[in-house]
Amino acid sequence: MKSLHPRNIHNHEYDFELLQQKCPDLQKYILESYGKKTIDFSNPEAVKTLNKSLLTAYYGIHYWEFPGTNLCPPIPGRVDYIHHIADLIGNTVQAHVLDIGTGATCVYPILGNAVYNWTFVGTDIDSKSIASAQKIVNENSLEKQIHFRKQTNKEHILQGILKKEDAFTVTMCNPPFYASEEEAKGANNRKSRNLGNTAVRNFAGNANELWYKGGEKAFLHTYLYESSLTPKASTWFTSLVSKKENCKSLEASAKKLGVKKFKIIPMHQGNKVTRIVCWAW
Questions:
Q1: Widest Cα–Cα separation across the chain
Q2: What distance, in Å, lies between the first and last C-alpha atoms of the chain?
Q3: Spatial CA neighbour of 222 closest among 252, 250, 182
Q4: Domain locations in the chain?
Q5: How many CB atoms lie within 10 A of CB 17?
Q6: What is the pLDDT of residues 99-141, one digit of tens each?
Q7: 3-state per-residue secondary structure call for the chain
Q8: Which residues pair with 229 in a beta bridge?
Q9: pLDDT tens-digit profile of 161-209?
Q10: Residue 280 and residue 228: Cα distance in Å, rounded?
């Protein structure tokens, strides 16, 4: 996989021999294409098993189960965010990280702890997602490194979560992209057609993962504003941003609010381009 962060160990093609050894269940999903091993990426179970094998082989995660209604995050792309954040704060820093919307898979906390030994507090509005994430933590003996807090008001992001004594090194987030369920389903259907099938579960996700009233832009501006109310709670606040124009809008608002530092970090993952916005008070 080209264009990933230089420290990302997934910069090369998948080592299916190693992955099969670490996760024998992967064997039944492996196909031969043009003399190379691969999987059917339109098959949600194959995709999930591949990512489980990566977690086992490279990150020491031996249990990673979650409901089929939740998004299955691609490990190479998720760990890229972790590496870029490490560059931002200094990759020797023993960071304490707030992960907003940690989800049922707990993917950022388990990766950040495995790669850099960071400690995490994960938040979510969904009790079932927190329960799933907690089981992943428990089964991998990470109870001392990863904790959770429930957000009880879906309109808020940081309010109701942060405590007076909080002093995070960095806050991270993979925000909902869509403004409504209809918009999310439309994008889901387009992806399925592009794959030539109807495997919509490959892009499954529950409401809080996929949409937020007003979409990504509204989410980001709420996040920025709420960070201004507790500027000392975290040295850096960061988020993934899918739409380039939302970066410009957020930067303009950040300047008005008095942000001291604002950075945009591009992330190139194959043909896909996304970015991380970062600000500090």
A1: 58
A2: 35
A3: 250
A4: 67-280
A5: 8
A6: 999 999 999 999 999 999 999 999 999 999 999 999 999 999 9
A7: CCCCCCCCCCCCCCCHHHHHHHCHHHHHHEEEECCEEEECCCCHHHHHHHHHHHHHHHHCCCCCCCCCCCCCCCHHHHHHHHHHHHHHHCCCCCCEEEEECCCCCCHHHHHHHHHHCCEEEEEECCHHHHHHHHHHHHHCCCCCCEEEEECCCCCCCCCCCCCCCCCEEEEEECCCCECCHHHHHHHHHHHHHHCCCCCHHHHCCCHHHHECCCHHHHHHHHHHHHHHHCHHHEEEEEEEECCHHHHHHHHHHHHHHCCCEEEEEEEEECCEEEEEEEEEC
A8: none
A9: 999 999 999 999 998 754 445 554 444 444 444 445 444 444 444 444 4
A10: 10
Question: Any idea which residue has 């898979």 for tokens?
Answer: 105
**One-letter amino acid of 166:** D
**CA dist., res. 251 & res. 198, Å (int):** 39
CATH 3.40.50.2300, applies to 67-280:
no
Token reading at 189: 């259907």
